[in-house]
Amino acid sequence: MVTGALLTMSYVPFDVDHYERQEELSDLERTILSNRRYRSDWAYLQSSVPRLVIPLIDLVAHAGVSDRLAVSSVSVILWHVSRTDIPYWSWSEMQWLALLDTQAGSRPYLAAVAYHMGGFRTPKRITKFRQSAIYASFIFGHKIFKDELTRLSTVLKSLGYTARHLEKFLSGVLAALMLENGDPRLETFTEVLLIKGQGHRSVGIARLVGKVSHGLAALGILDKPLRKRGYADWREKSIEGIDPVWVSWCRRWRDTSTLRPRTRESNYSFMLRTGIWLTREQPWVSSPVDWNTSTCAAVIAAIDRMTVGEWALESALGTKLKGLGQPIAPNSKRAFLHALRRFFIDFELWGWGRLKFSPRHHLATPRTVAFNSGINPRVIDDSSWLKLIWASLNLERKDLLSETHYPLAMVQAASVVWTHTGLRSNEIMRLSVGCAHAQ
């Protein structure tokens, strides 16, 4: 594997200082760019208007964009230069955004031009900004992005993170940090950058910053990983396609429930997704009091046949879903029905109305679903498990990464119990005082 020092030395940032960048167009440039046929003739453009075209062609090689997309993208930029009568390196942020929000050309390549030649350093402001890994690859170059991703992924795997988890999430969070940093090299990442990354608008990326910090600490770039944060906030979910009356009851339940924030928000999502089904299949049902036993039977059947992404909220449509279109897992079905039962039980318990059915009976989890639900344990390599046992026996206060501190003795005891008994968290919580005996 290439070492970090060699990667840092081999990476050459795109240098814009050696290009001629006058603020006004010449009469010859105006004449040539006004002709549509010339705007796609690279050979002619390089000889006639080199200062406008050569930086764009160099960025094509830097970004690794295909010739097909490159021709159309360069043509779009030159057309906008002709229309605005301003060289692209003198455009304002609003002019760049207007171009980047159109359908023309390759948006990541256009963002790379804006980043290097136009000083537009906030690509996340683009309306249709998706997949930050693609933008980081185009802006900094595919090779450096792939090399740094491989370095970080390799060290995180050695720390025990699964390859499947890293492949799904790591590229996005690393790209977001690179764009925020303005430099793709891991050696330039700082604790201040990562703390700022924890405030990212995407909660998923914010949570994964901590994992990146573990990798950087293992590489010797950081002195220690970041302390774990408690994410009390939650991105507001969309309500498109849901009856407003149903939404109001869902929100009232969320604002009243005393469940833990994560559980409360998860249940709230289940109920909103049920609202999507109601709008499609039973639009006459808008309130909990409208439900009857037939509605319960219909929703149980629908959940039993549901596929991944079928009742997705608008706010979740950009999320990459594993197994899209495949039947949802039995555990997901059970969680969905449990959330509905909780909602209806609380509705009646809190005196909000009288139901026409019994939630515990008519929304009970079918036996076939309950039978197929359960824990799917993952086999842990013996060497990794021995490391966990050693760590549990030698746990010290400096090892605690959470800002919420339990007594150190309690954490030490729970760690030893877990590594020596293999009990799940709920089983450990049920252990009685005095159950442990010295051997």
Quick overview:
The chain is an all-alpha fold and 439 residues long. 56% of the residues lie in helices and 0% in strands.
Describe the structure.
With 439 residues, this protein is mainly alpha-helical. It has four domains: 4-129, no CATH class; 142-218; 244-372, no CATH class; 382-429, no CATH class. Helices cover 56% and strands 0% of the residues. The protein is built from 21 helices and no strands. It has helices spanning 4-10, 27-33, 42-48, 50-63, 67-84, 93-100, 107-117, 132-140, 142-158, 163-181, 191-197, 203-218, 244-256, 261-281, 293-304, 330-349, 359-362, 367-372, 382-393, 408-421, 425-429. The chain is flat, with a radius of gyration of 28 Å. The two termini are 47 Å apart. The model has no long low-confidence stretch (mean pLDDT 82).
Please name the defining characteristics of this protein.
21 helices; ORF4-like protein; mainly alpha; 439 residues
Quickly count the domains: 4
Backbone structural class: mainly alpha
Low-confidence stretches: none
* CA-based shape: flat
Overall pLDDT metric: 82
Largest sheet: none
Distance between the termini: 47 Å
Using only C-alpha atoms, the radius of gyration works out to 28 Å
**Beta-strand percentage range:** under 5%
Number of helices: 21
Number of strands: 0
Helix content: 55-70%
- The ordered H/E elements are HHHHHHHHHHHHHHHHHHHHH
Protein name: ORF4-like protein
Organism: Pseudomonas syringae pv. maculicola
